[in-house]
Amino acid sequence: MIRQMRDADIPGAMRLKHAAGWNQTPSDWQRLLRLEPEGCFVAERDGLVVGSTTAVRYGSEMAWLGMVLVLPEFRRQGIARGLVQHALDWLDLRGTRTCGLDATSMGKPLYEEVGFVSTELIERWERPPEDNPSCGGRTSARSVGTLSAALERIDREACNYDRSLLLRDLCKDSTVAGASCPEGFAFGRPGSSAWFVGPCVAKNARAAASVLRATLESRQGQRVFWDFLPSNRSARELATELGFQPVRRLERMMLRGGKSPTLHSHSDEVYATAGFEFG
Ligand SMILES: CC(C)(COP(=O)(O)OP(=O)(O)OC[C@H]1O[C@@H](n2cnc3c(N)ncnc32)[C@H](O)[C@@H]1OP(=O)(O)O)[C@@H](O)C(=O)NCCC(=O)NCCS
After folding, report:
1. Mapping DSSP to helix (H, G, I), strand (E, B) and coil, where does residue 147 land?
2. Which residue range(s) make up the domain with 23?
3. Between vectors from CA 62 to CA 36 and to CA 186, what angle results, nearest 5°?
4. Pocket of ligand 1 (CB under 6 A)
5. What's the pTM value of the predicted model, to 2 decimals?
6. What stretches in the chain show pLDDT beneath 50?
7. Same domain, yes or no, for 150 and 260?
8. Is residue 30 part of a domain?
């Protein structure tokens, strides 16, 4: 049975993500439920949550599919296919024009089957805890109530779709560097196995370096994940300079037939994505 996810399903959802070794926390699931309470789904067998997927809409232009997980002992029975199709039908009914996702090699064959095509690579880089580069930045990351309208505009121009609700939600439990900087920002939040830096969007490499250094300066000695599109060479150079190494490679995919916003966006201004489940 596929049904809408509820807050009470979060412990079951954490078991799914734990089995896959992912980094999300209960707060990440809560955020997905806050952003799209009717777009998060679980598959249930005999009262047990055995699979999940989430769809977050960014206006009517774009949606992002994530958290496609099935418990290992329930795989290859069509559960993920059912969940993904259910989420796509749900989006279709709401008139969402296109949908993206970041695919693992396990997920990719399924997504191709339902009509997604690869558009580019996305990499996870990690700074191991023993690496401890000096990151002294000019601004310090802090908690903020909201991001300025100017920064939300920078984000919208860089992505070509409207992530303002996500950014506002992230302000609740993330630190932000550059909240008063006119040229860019970087968020950071805890994960279950590593601190996660992102999203980071900046008008130029100098602003990106400043906000990312500020975000990282309070994370000395801690394991950190940073996801970005390797087509952004400045992000790659900065990650290397700050002691990060590539650890995973996924494929960014878009639903065939949808007008892919990434083709028109300023992806060179996106220095860190918001997480594989958010885009
Ligand atoms: C990827 C995952 C969600 C698939 O779940 P699932 O319920 O086993 O998938 P389904 O049974 O619906 O499979 C649908 C189709 O996807 C493809 N597929 C699924 N798992 C596959 C695998 N391990 N290798 C190759 N193809 C696979 C097949 O085409 C399959 O159809 P088939 O079984 O008729 O051959 C599951 O393996 C999982 O949780 N993996 C770890 C987390 C992950 O990587 N999630 C994807 C995030 S992008």
Report:
1. coil
2. 2-119
3. 80
4. 20, 68-70, 75-81, 103-104, 106-107, 109-110, 113
5. 0.93
6. 135-139
7. yes
8. yes
